[in-house]
Amino acid sequence: MQTFPISKSLQRLGNIAIFGLKMKYVTIKDIAASLSLSVSTVSRALSGDKNIRDETRAKVIAAAEEMGYRHNAAAASLKTGRTSTVGVIVPEMWSEYTIQVIRGIQSILYPYGVKVIIADSNEDPAQEKENIMMMERFMVDGLIVGLCSYLHNMDEFRRLQNDNLPLAFFGRIPHGLEVSQVLVDDYAKSFFIVEKLILSGRRKICHIHGPKRVYNAVERARGYRDALAKYNIPFESSLQIYSRITRNDGANAVDQLIDSGTDFDAIFAFTEAQAIGALGRLRQRGLRVPEDVAVSCFSGSVLSEVVTPQLTSVEPPMFEIGQTLAQLLIEQIKNPSAEPRTVVLNAEIKMRESTGDNSNL
Distances in Å between the alpha carbon of 119 and those of 69, 89, 147, 195? Predict the structure, then answer.
């Protein structure tokens, strides 16, 4: 039996167990034989058919409980064409952003009796492709995806579209595909937060760029550059550092700036994790926040409020993103001819001590 590693973040979503035991399942035929009833009668009794006598129904239910009968969802799916499962593929499973999105998805789907299968691509397009194929093997009724890259696996998603599998994307959108998606305005919010830094007197603003293959990293960088241009501040390539998205990457970006002798008085990071890493390294290198360097980021969460100083951030409505994704997918499952929809949700800009400003946008 193949097993998959489960991260601590995933465990926070609920306990997961995989058992390799072989067991014999009790069937409707077994119940019928034990009661000397027809299979049809037992099936109708278990499904609540009003034409079955109360006495017979009670006997069937009692026997089913005693024998350990469980509804066979796989057999039912052969009749309905649905498995009552939805796949969720995410690029990572450690951030608060991902965890809250998944919780939002579950909050909508579980009351419908729809279960969620989660796969972590670990920022690897090859693993993402494997996850897509796994979801196909599980015959999910629909798929929610946060991409590793808008440059990879587009043919796979087009193929799924052609097979009429309901799809919905979030955050890292598949630029160029006509699909349902939930996002925030990465460009506008990045522009506004960089503008706030400029208006507070900062002129040497470093942007810790996300991976080039992630489309919202491209949009956030565009907002950064356009804000500089509005105030006639020249773009300096030494102040734009391409990075992965972890705390270590944020810390390494600060080391790169200081060790190269680059002059900077503010940081705008692609992710909260990068910004938190930058905060810690600035302190280690003897720089004060916000007196010497102001720090801000996108994708802020509750973690932005528990670090010192509290972190200025753009905060997407993560739980609501998950809920909206699930609703879009339900629409498509119920109506396969429904047109793809794009939903843009508002993200708040929370100004905190890391930039020396507590006014919110």
Answer: 30, 5, 12, 37
**Is 351 in contact with 358 (CB distance < 8 Å)?**
yes
Please state the φ and ψ torsions of residue 170, each to the nearest 5 degrees: -145, 155
| Residue stretches of the chain with pLDDT short of 70 | 1-25, 71-82, 358-361
Which residues does residue 169 pair with via DSSP β-bridges, in sequence order? 145, 181
pTM, full prediction: 0.73
Please give the full DSSP string across 46-100, using - where no structure is assigned.
HTT-TTS-HHHHHHHHHHHHHHT----HHHHHHHHS--SEEEEEES-SSSHHHHH
H or E stretch at 163: none
- Tell which residue, 75, 73, 113, 72, has the closest CA to residue 333: 113
Give tens-digit pLDDT for 144-162.
Answer: 999 888 778 889 999 998 8
Half-sphere exposure of 24 (CA within 13 A, CB side): 5
Q: d(Cα 166, Cα 140) in Å, to the nearest integer?
A: 10
